Each structure stands twice: as C-alpha cells, then as structure tokens.
Amino acid sequence: MDRNARARRRRLAWRGVESAILLLVLFLILFPILWMALTAFKRPVDLFDLTVFFTPTLDNFRAIFAHPWNIGQTFLNSLVVAGLTVAVSIPASTLAAYAFSRFEMPFKGALFFTILATQFIPAVVVVLPFYLLFRDLGLLDTHLALVVVNLAIVTPFAVWMLKGFLDAVPTESEEAAMVDGATRLRVIIDIVVPMVWPGVVVTAVFCFILTWNEFLFALILTRDDAVTLPVGITRFRTERGDLWELIAAAGILISIPMFFLSSVIQRHFVRGMTGGAVK
C-alpha cells in the first residue's frame, strides 16, 4: 500500500509539474499578444503604466487610418500581394508537386533537392539582384514586383508540402479515370485535388501567412504606392520617438487575418496535416 501511495504521489507531483510548465509556456505565448491588445487602447499618458486598469480609447485606431499614416492603404496592399501570390502559386505548385509525385524523370531527386535548396538561401543575399532587376524594368514600388518575389519564396515550400499530401493518395482512381478516357489535367482537377483539398487549404494558408509577414523585400522594393503592412508599421516614429500605442493598434490590424484564418480553416488544418503526415 505504501508503495502504491508513493507511486500515486509521484504521478500527481509530475502532473503538477507538467501543468505548471504548460501554464508558463501559455503565459509566455499569450502575454505579448495580451499586452499589445491593451496598449492599442491606451492613451499616450497611460502607455508606460504597468497596469491593466485604464480608460480605454479608440483614438489610436482612428489615428492610424488618418493622414499621415494611412494604414488602410498598406493593409490593402498586403491583401492584394498575398492574395495574388496564393492565387498563382497554389495551382502552379499543385501541378509541379503532382509531376514529382507521379512521374519518373531524369535527375528527379536532384531537381527536387534544388527546389528545396532555394529555401536555404538568405533573403538578404538575393534582394540586391531583385532590386536591380525591377529597377531596370521600372517595376519598383509595384504590386507586381512583390508578387514575383513572394512567388519565388513560397512556391518551393508549396511544392514540397503538396508533394507530401499527394504521395499519400493512391493512384487507382486516377488510372481508372484515364482508362475511361479522362485526360491527365481532368484527373488532377476532378479526382486528385478534391482528395487532397485539406492539404491544399493548409498549404494556401501557410503561403498567405509567409507573404503577409514578409518584410525585407517589401522594405527594399517599395517606397510609397506598394508599401505593405509590416513595412507601414515601421513608420510610426516621430520627434517624440516610437509611437507604441499606434504600433500596437497596427499590430492588432495585422493579426486579424491570422486569427480569422486560424478559426475558419481549423478543421482543414488538422485533416490536412494528419493526411500529409501519414502515408
């Protein structure tokens, strides 16, 4: 009995340690978000008070949409760039991933590795060639330049991710459809894509997030017309220093699509990740 009692006490103690660690991790993750949300509603006079009790205001949100910040335009720019990038990269990546998954080709492994290797090149290494290219083409400070750059960033990632989902799909349905006279493209559209749709949604969401949060290329390649939201936030600096209340309000704005996507596609996310992880 004493041995069993000691074992129960050890299990209870270990569960207590696990709960404490989980609570600490949860606090470390959520505290910056909570503090940003509180700061967004603070007046400048309350900004550096370490308290959660203050008189809230919406002036910060009104200010970031007014002149000279005009954060609404940068928000729209981010939506346009991220939306166009996903709209182009997902169909192209699906076709490329299908080719790698289904076809045999010379140097297939080396070619796939080359695509993945582009993900390991630091962005700062290639930003200058992109800048010179777009300068000569007259595309600096345009949505098109940012879409092209972000396609180069997210497409290899999307090909790699979608190939994992496609590898988990059996080929019997495709072969039967082609025996009945269906073309390869029709098979992909009508059979393959519906079977891996959760994976496509997950990949699209990751591509959107990567594009939405991209900072370096948007900083170098834009000036006024195509400035995205991450770069727009850096402009909240005046003679009194960084305007943290406005930065926090813009931070809430940049986080809204992320929270919206996580709530809308949660079911697809779980299904897609489990489907791609288990072959």
- Widest β-sheet, arrangement of strands: 1-2
How much is the average pLDDT? 86
The number of helices is: 13
Which quaternary structure do these chains form? single chain
What is the H/E order?
Answer: HHHHHHHHHHHEEHH
- The parts where pLDDT drops under 50 for at least 5 residues are 275-279
Beta-strand level of the residues, as a percent range?
under 5%
Summarize the biggest pleated sheet: 2 strands, antiparallel
List the helices and strands and how they pair.
Blueprint: H1 2-40, H2 59-65, H3 71-102, H4 108-117, H5 123-137, H6 143-167, H7 172-179, H8 184-195, H9 197-213, H10 216-221, H11 229-233, E1 237-238, E2 241-242, H12 244-264, H13 266-277
Antiparallel strand pairs: 1-2
Helix pairs in contact: 1-12, 2-12, 3-6, 3-9, 6-9, 6-13, 7-8, 9-13
Features:
disordered C terminus; 75% helix; mainly alpha; 13 helices; 279 residues; two-stranded antiparallel ribbon; single chain
Describe the model.
There is one protein chain. By secondary structure, the chain is an all-alpha fold. It is built from 13 helices and 2 strands. The protein has helices spanning 2-40, 59-65, 71-102, 108-117, 123-137, 143-167, 172-179, 184-195, 197-213, 216-221, 229-233, 244-264, 266-277, and strands spanning 237-238, 241-242. It has a two-stranded antiparallel sheet with strand order 1-2. The longest helix is centred in the first third of the chain and has 39 residues, at 2-40. The chain is flat, with a radius of gyration of 24 Å.
